[in-house]
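Q: What structure does this chain adopt?
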Amino acid sequence: MSTLPETKATLGSEEATQLAEIFHLLGDANRLRLVHACLHEAVSVQDLAHRFDLSPSLVSHHLRLLRAARLMRAERRGKRVFYTAADEHVRTVLEDMTAHLQEHPEED
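A:
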């Protein structure tokens, strides 16, 4: 007996387009690393730029796109803006895919 939640039998055209756009955004390695770095803590743009050796303007650009897609949320603290994963769904997807990658090494 499966313990997985029930899902729709089919994925609607609009939902498929929205999901494809989200996965397209996450297809960029820098954006994916930014989201992953913010899964469990709020991190500032400056700290992310330093951590990944990217310019703050490039980090801000990526974060704007991710926020528009509702993958990230922002919180202003004084003059700095801190970003974190939008919700548990985003955390779960990335953590599950990371675990999947680690469990199934590439076969030669």
